[in-house]
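the two lines:
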Amino acid sequence: RKEVEQDPGPFNVPEGATVAFNCTYSNSASQSFFWYRQDCRKEPKLLMSVYSSGNEDGRFTAQLNRASQYISLLIRDSKLSDSATYLCVVNRNSGNTPLVFGKGTRLSVIA
Amino acid sequence: DTAVSQTPKYLVTQMGNDKSIKCEQNLGHDTMYWYKQDSKKFLKIMFSYNNKELIINETVPNRFSPKSPDKAHLNLHINSLELGDSAVYFCASSQIETGRYQETQYFGPGTRLLVL
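prediction for all of em together
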């Protein structure tokens, strides 16, 4: 099983749609979880950290299910500018261990 | 102000050559990283330095040698370049607090290396 697995997409959605991405991770000891965003030919940038209780930042909601080792990202009211690749990121083990990046899910928001 | 910068942005070279990529961060972070993103867009860590000391080396060929002259700089030297080294190399930095979990990493713009 890969350390971090994501559906690669692409997800093609109309503006205003709600879209959800899922991610699973293999190591139950992982403690840090993030969603990063990477635009075409650009560097990854932090979108949001993911906390056990779930967290929301504007149109973006992240959820963590430790029992199922599953992370999700929900984007409401999609904008054209949301088009990007969304990377699920988990630390390899507990504490200050390397981040492991998923291959990313590509989102295209269409007018 | 650029937080994490890399030079060069593009690098085209012949097989067998030796090349270096430079990285600098002005965030005051104590930890820096090198990542490789291949043609399949898979981003993998190569090295990590904390306060100029190597703390992670992810079974990277010894043709790759990182050097950290101070905690704001982490350079990557590659000897005897091979076709398979073609990729985008990203530098990143973060601030690791003792006893805390992994913190946010800030990435540089990337260096696109093409080996012919």
